[in-house]
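Reviewers of the previous submission asked for a worked example of the structure-prediction workflow described in the proposal, so we include one complete record here. The input consisted solely of the amino acid sequence. No template or homolog information was supplied to the procedure at any stage.
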Amino acid sequence: MPGNRPRIMTVDDSITVRKFAEMVLTKEGYEVALAANGAEFMNTVENFQPDLVLLDYVLPDLASQEICERLLASEKTRHIPVLMISSNGNAIRTMYQNCKNVKDYLTKPFQANILASVVKHVLEKTRKEIEEAAASASVQAAMSAPVVDELPTLPVPPPVRSVTRPPIKIATSGRTSAPFQPRGSTPPVLRPNTPSPIPAPAPAEVAGAPNPLIAGANQAEEALLLKVRQVVENKYASLARFIPELEAKRGGKAPEPYYLSFLARPKVISDMAQALREFHEDSVGAPVTLAGTSEVMSADVVLLHLAAKNSTGALHLQLPGELVKVFFHNGLVAAISSDNPKNYCTGAAFDFRSLARERITQAVVLQRRYALPFFATLHQDGYLNGDKLNELLRTQGRNTIVRALTAASVDFRFHPLPKLPAWVEQFSLRRPVRDLMLEVYRGVEDWLTIESTIGDYEAILGKSRDCAEAAARLPLTGEEKQMLELIDGQLSIQEVINWSGSSAFVVCGILYRFIKMGLLDFIYRPPSKKTEEA
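From that input alone, the workflow returned the following structure tokens.
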């Protein structure tokens, strides 16, 4: 029935774009409405109630950013997703990072199959987001609450709900496959590529008792406080004994400058600075060895670089509103977490409604304070068995890296560590970076990110020199293997899409991850087309 068809509204001052979109989307089974400017759109959007808006970046009357903000401000339209249309999506992406209704970007000029495929994907992605938000509503509310100063005192946890199994032994010998490394790099020393067994949960933390999982999580900060206290006591102990005498001599002098002349002596400050430098070198190791921004080096390149260097330590990825931490051990990814449990838990296959609020609060506080993953706390409390915990740590860690890859801007810094936090050692994933990155690239659903890598559809891709060797070591799906066979160094990307029988979004997504993994190289790229903002 026509009334049940998804509704799409296209807003563009070009009649050519409007009619083209109407023709393509109507043929795909959508109910389509058109608007030539911002005012016309705002006057009709509430009555039409579209499932998706295709919004041109430049309109003759209203700024597109103002339109997005006005949609978010209204109860009747805040749920409507927006697909921004622009001739340069990368240039405007940062402008809309705070507009939660802007779901993706479509670059002009676009082809019919690209338009249909991207629209379908955005609608599916929006539907999944709504389902995930509804499923995790209880934990989302708890995680939005302010962090309390103290952890809640919890009752004794229930018995573990999993079947007790014999300890799992990991073989320390036998042939293992090493992850593909860029030519000229030093291959990491690998442990067997077997998920590490998750030990039985320890008793829950009780009031006043230390939690063994967070041992070493903030070792640098805790040691720093102790060192500062020792320096202060050593330098000011003698001065403290003379406070009564000094106070008697102060007379009418103002207390601040009088006492600061004793407390802030250059020699004392110099001694404290030296002590802190020595502490940092002894307890944290070398200072930050790699730092920068994604404008210079993308997050995936940083991860591959640290793997090639057999690094051990913590990589900090600063996203808007979230600090992601990736822990390395001898070049392998040991753990992934963040200080934002709300983002970290989104989409997790777990029934949060089964938890008491006190349990949620405890897990939230520990993740915000020590980066201890939300689900590791539940395992310790007996709510998750080892297999389920391992699955959640892998999937939520992967989703966390996807956010870093698709964020508008990321600052990164790597801290070498002599010892990883206790929870990282206990729940270590021990994953080769290239296996992780393939899984991460599969989770990238941002069309602008994919299209920016693919480029022109007339470009021709060929297999790289190391393609066969690298592909043999990667867990490729059947669809990915078939796609790889289609690449012969002669077909353009558009011809690959036509021959594959799959949607343009699916094909370009596979080609995107093949390019990022170094399996494919560009043999031919058409000259860049200089376009003006439409």
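The first strand starts at residue 7 and ends at 11. We consider this example representative of the routine output the project will generate in years two and three.
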